[in-house]
Amino acid sequence: MKKNISTLITLSQKAKYVGLFLALLAASPLAKAQNNPTITVNGKTFKDLNKNGKLDAWEDTRLSAEKRIDAIIKQMTNAEKVDLLIGTGMPGIEVLTGPVGDSKQGLVPGAAGGTAELTRFGIPATVVADGPAGLRISPTRKDDSKTYYATAFPVGTALASTWNKTLLEQVGKAMGNEVKEYGVDVLLAPALNIHRNPLNGRNFEYYSEDPLISGKTAAAIVNGIQSQGVGTSIKHFAANNEETNRLTINAHVSERAMRELYLRNFEITVKESQPWTVMSSYNKVNGVYTSDSKDLLTQVLRNEWGFKGIVMTDWFGGFPGFESIRSGGISDVVKQMNAGNDLLMPGIPAQKKVLLEALNSGKLSQQVADLNVKRILEYIFKTPTFAQYKYSDKPNLNDHAAVTRNAATEGMVLLKNENNALPFADKQKGVSLFGVTSYAWITGGTGSGSVNNKHTVSLLEGLNAAGYKLDKELVDLYKPHAEKEVAAEKERRKARGILALPERLPEMKLDDAFYAKKAETSEIAFVTLGRNSGEGGDRVVDNDFNLATEEIEMLDKISKAFHAKGKKVVVILNIGGVIETASWKDKADAILLAWQPGQEGGHSVADVVSGKVNPSGKLTMTFPVNYTDHASAKNFPGVPADNPKDVTYQEGIYVGYRYFNTFGVKPSYEFGYGKSYTDFAYSNIKTNSKTFNNKLEVSVDVKNTGKVNGKEVVELYLSAPSKSIDKPTSELKAYAKTKDLKPGESQTITLTLEPKDLASFVPSKSAWIAEPGNYKISIGASSLDIRQTIDFSVPKEITVEKVQHVFAADTEFKDLKP
After folding, report:
1. Number of other residues whose CB lies within 10 A of the CB of residue 341
2. Dihedral (C-alpha) 573, 578, 583, 585: value to the nearest 10 degrees?
């Protein structure tokens, strides 16, 4: 973030979770659901939810949920409707907002908020909590000696890099179990915004620059979480691709780019996993706050995609910053309700007052309010809280540690491996462990995407546990240095306030003679480079995306000393998002992208470097040679530069590999790239037809031609005719991961193309159109490493889907074209 943005703007960027953090400090004891008295009618027993001694229609389980909900709505007062449409607030938020009235402490301390209780109907308060890398609640509670730790799973970039839908569903199941057993109803996750630009401070939470991998990854995680009987809130809907001035930034985006990139991932997730809730984002799209956008929340989400759940705002979504609350400003609650944004979070009394006045005066129609209330009641009826589920407060954290260790291992990407530097399995030979982050390991990013886990396994601990012989002098030097720097960083962030952004920890200064000595006594050097970022601010190019001078010096010296003795240098990247690699990768024999791999990260890295597990992760985003090689670089984070109010997505659909491959820009590591300890051969590509008719099946044989077991990600790219509208060179349209193939073993992978996979959005026709002509299928190990190709034809134009024009432009600009 730019240093001269005003304090108020900075505060508004850091809005969302302040109350959550403060709530952790003022947490009340947990109130568990109480059993209700019962009523027996004609031999059948019903819960007397509101304890009034009679069977009300909404308590009669012989009736459908819809009839029971309608019975409640018929009797609700306007005040009760408003209570349900606005969240229960957030204790402690007054630090930023000034007095906003009472906020109720939720049932689960450290949760982000919830819906109101309506005792007259026996409707309980429900609980929502962060987040994308696991459940975020307070680990300690007032007057309570027990602890409530949750599992820190790998960050989004690491999970997506597995390309393994079955494994992702297992991760979701583990997350969902913790949500349910700690008494929470909805996890505010997954987060699936597109990596438009590598500097977005929250890219670690998100999955990819590509909507297919992003949507499929999120769908698998949602299906896993919701299989446990709790809900998800997919976020941030939509075009929330930066943190700078996130509450107010106006994103100017063409309808084509919106539909093909920034909505397509959400569409896949909605249709393949039916999330309980969708969270509208902070930003404006073409001049309209997303929480005010009927185009987005009703036309696209509900009418086109058939979404049935509730939409909630992001925390204080629709507010033009915290300074506006101090002066009595609020979001446009009537617009939000009319747009189809059912629940306003976290909710403040001023919103209730205005909404009640609007409902009483007719400014907001009963019909709209009733529809929004109905959707919230439908959600409540599905929750464990409504079912009076007796949660244990004891999820199986040991089992979940194994799940996260396995997922982190499978998401690691082997970027380089010259002369089989890895695996390094010799436990008798000395290992020099360099880099402050080896000792102060980064589990995940900061803000709502972080988790209060019990302990993080550092690389030091992971290698020790795996039996490696680590150089003791180095460990004795680095450990106190790392502890001192971590303590200083904590103090820095404390001084800057809640949600202060993390900074890179300084490296230790060592001289050439010391490095030479270590090269004498060690067989190999492991060097960790670490990066962290978080909610509320974007990354910067110098000393973050690019390596710092001291990191380059450290790598130079280690490389020179170890290579002089014929020894190997392995770089471990403990990062959440993309960094520059092109200028220094020749200094390393191997580079392992470990990501921010969750609490078991040190074990996971040891599993890969030892060869216990063969790495099978692939990049879901492009690693450029230079930051400026990205098409969005000249339009990020917006204008004016010192305090952006507007950002123009002038690159249109040419984001990530769609840009690099179409415009011939050479990356450092391309989309879909990842090496293995074995080799794979592709052969025998076939389609079930030479012409497309409703769907097409493509099969290919993949054989492990190396010497160790391994898994391969098979990627299908499609090149389409571009007579009526420009197209990228190729686009990812399907993928699959093989099973663990033994040396010499083959597997036939079959992938399916549907009509929409062939289509582009043509704005002049307001339709998804597949042009007639020749289409080329390319199957490869990355977007540039194509192994097999085959053609098919589309005899005549297919109008796959006709839609209504949405997101009218508020400023004129032309999308980039090849």
Report:
1. 32
2. 40
pLDDT the model gives residue 326: 79
User: HSE (CB half, 13 Å, CA atoms) of 707?
Assistant: 3
For the chain, percent helix, then strand, then coil, each to nearest 5?
35, 20, 45
Whether the per-residue pLDDT at 107 is higher than 90: the answer is no
Angle (CA) 504-510-516 rounded to 5° is 130
Cα–Cα distance, 512 to 526 (Å, whole number) = 17
Rounded Cα distance between 615 and 786, Å, is: 20
481-506: average pLDDT: 89
DSSP state of 274: -
With 50 as the cut, is the pLDDT of residue 16 above it? no
Three-state SS for 56-105 is CHHHCCCCCHHHHHHHHHHHCCHHHHHHHHECCCCCCCHHHHCCCCCCCC
pLDDT digits (tens, 9 = 90+) for 296-341: 999 999 999 999 999 999 999 999 877 788 788 899 999 999 999 9
Catalytic positions: 314
Q: What is the mean pLDDT of residues 418-447?
A: 96
Do 103 and 91 contact (CB within 8 A), yes or no?
Answer: yes
Pick from 619, 570, 576: nearest CA to 463: 570
Q: Answer whether residue 155 shows pLDDT above 50.
A: yes
Residue 713 identity (one-letter amino acid): V
C-alpha 154/C-alpha 408 separation (Å) is 6
Rama region for 173: left / alpha / beta (φ>0; ψ in -120 to 50; rest): alpha
CB contact set of 258 (below 8 Å; sequence gap of 6+): 238, 239, 285, 806, 807
Confidence at 465, pLDDT banded by 50, 70, 90: very high
The Cα–Cα gap between 151 and 452 comes to 8
* 691 bridge partner residues: 793
Q: Which has more confidence, 102 or 8?
A: 102
Residue 26's pLDDT is 33
Closest CA to 234 of 283, 181, 274, 174: 274
Across 642-650, average pLDDT: 97
User: Residue 113 forms beta bridges with which residues?
Assistant: 128
CA dist., res. 40 & res. 33, Å (int): 22
Number of Cβ atoms within 10 Å of the Cβ of 370: 15
User: Does pLDDT of 96 surpass 90?
Assistant: no
Average pLDDT, the chain: 93
Burial category of 550 from C-beta neighbours within 10 Å (exposed 0-12, middle 13-18, buried 19 and up): middle
What is the rounded distance in angstroms from the CA atom of residue 533 to the CA atom of residue 574? 12
Bridge partner residues of 446 (DSSP):
534
Is the distance from CB of 8 to CB of 322 less than 8 angstroms?
yes
Hey, is 617 helix, strand or coil? coil
Please tell me what DSSP assigns to residue 376.
H
d(CA 802, CA 800): 7
